[in-house]
């Protein structure tokens, strides 16, 4: 069956309402921040897994899947990495992938190996970033390093504003098709689905076209702005995943509205008191 997950924060695990909802309603977890580069390698070569391990152990002890998020991203890089470029950055980034994926080897259901590497708007091109400037092959190098470190984890590319057939999602589609044709190890594509008051009519067709390339698809960071058919949009997303056989699960980006990064949007499934 499909999993239903929540992004969680280590700092909230002492909140009894929060953990009650988590353990009764969900069977997958994603660390909201604790496995990111700034959190896991705050100085170069010195790895800290305390908070990431808290999320992992919360998930595993509850029999849940754990989605790892995220090995490489242009945001939330430690300062030392932001200051690097060229070969030094390339080597540091691949070492980061290898070290973190090795630490969690055998425990992670799916890794977001690369997060948000494509540009918004109509170009369908890569986003400019320090990582992109190391060479266009940085993404496939990251996937190969992740596969070598943890052959059992599904390896995902994850992005936002890809929740329909558009220039950005088509750019990613073309990358995935190329990776599959050349044997670059990629198993899944994550659709964040940070949604506003509408949903693209091609939402399901977009999931299906990726699935038809031979990868799993996952809804990875779902939240929906209140005030415009919120319940209908949640329903549409859920039905789309259920209708695509390779859609393996849905994750919401937080539990209560008060846990959300979208302050004031009330975008989650539980209110501030923990009521559905
Ligand atoms: O921005 C929403 C999400 C978009 N996709 C990738 C996700 O990784 C991203 O998550 C958010 C977290 O929900 C926020 O919690 O990523 C933000 C950073 O880009 C996170 O915010 C950061 C704050 O910016 C920091 O000031 C804070 O120290 O959270 C940190 C930990 O609370």
Provide keyphrases for this structure.
276 residues, alpha/beta, eight-stranded parallel β-barrel, 9 helices, 9 strands, 19% strand, binds ligand G2I
Structure description:
This protein is of the alpha/beta class and 276 residues long. It has nine helices and nine strands. Strands 1-2-3-4-5-6-8-9 form an eight-stranded parallel beta barrel, surrounded by five helices. The two termini are 23 Å apart. The model has no long low-confidence stretch (mean pLDDT 98). Bound molecules: ligand G2I. The site of ligand G2I has 9 residues, from loops.
> How many DSSP helices?
9
Give the CA-CA distance, first to last residue. 23 Å
Give the C-alpha Rg. Answer: 18 Å
How would you characterize the largest beta sheet?
8 strands, parallel, barrel
**Global mean pLDDT:** 98
Question: Which stretches are low in confidence, meaning pLDDT under 50 for 5 or more residues running?
Answer: none
Widest sheet: strand ordering = 1-2-3-4-5-6-8-9
Strand content: 15-25%
- Strands, total number: 9
Backbone shape: globular
Bound molecules: ligand G2I
Concise structural overview:
With 276 residues, the protein is an alpha/beta fold. It has helices at 16-25, 37-40, 50-61, 79-82, 86-103, 138-149, 167-182, 203-211, 230-243; strands at residues 3-8, 28-31, 65-73, 110-115, 154-159, 188-191, 194-195, 216-224, 247-252. Helix 5 packs parallel to helix 6 and helix 8 (203-211) packs parallel to helix 9.
């Amino acid at each position: 069956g499909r999993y239903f997950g929540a992004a969680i924060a280590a700092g909230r695990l002492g909140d009894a309402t929060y953990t009650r909802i988590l353990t009764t309603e969900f069977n997958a977890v994603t660390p909201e921040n604790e496995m990111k580069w700034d959190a896991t390698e705050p100085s170069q070569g010195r790895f800290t897994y305390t908070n990431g391990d808290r999320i992992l152990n919360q998930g595993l002890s509850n029999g849940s899947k754990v989605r790892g998020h995220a090995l490489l991203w242009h945001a939330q890089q430690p300062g030392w990495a932001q200051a690097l470029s060229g070969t030094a950055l390339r080597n540091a980034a691949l070492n980061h992938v290898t070290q973190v994926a090795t630490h969690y080897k055998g425990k992670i259901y799916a890794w977001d190996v690369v997060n948000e590497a494509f540009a918004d708007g109509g170009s369908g091109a890569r986003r400019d970033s320090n990582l992109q400037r190391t060479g266009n092959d940085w993404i496939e190098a990251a996937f190969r390093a992740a596969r070598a470190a943890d052959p059992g984890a599904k390896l995902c590319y994850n992005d936002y504003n890809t929740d329909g057939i558009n220039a950005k999602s088509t750019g990613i589609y073309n990358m995935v098709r190329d990776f599959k044709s050349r044997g670059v190890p990629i198993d899944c594509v994550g659709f964040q689905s940070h949604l506003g008051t509408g949903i693209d009519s091609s939402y399901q067709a977009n999931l299906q076209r990726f699935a038809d390339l031979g990868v799993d698809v996952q809804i990875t960071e779902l939240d929906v702005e209140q005030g415009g058919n919120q319940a209908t949009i949640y329903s549409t997303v859920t039905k789309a995943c259920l209708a695509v056989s390779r859609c393996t699960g849905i994750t919401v980006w937080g539990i209560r509205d008060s846990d959300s990064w979208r302050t004031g949007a009330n975008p989650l499934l539980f209110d501030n008191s923990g009521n559905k």
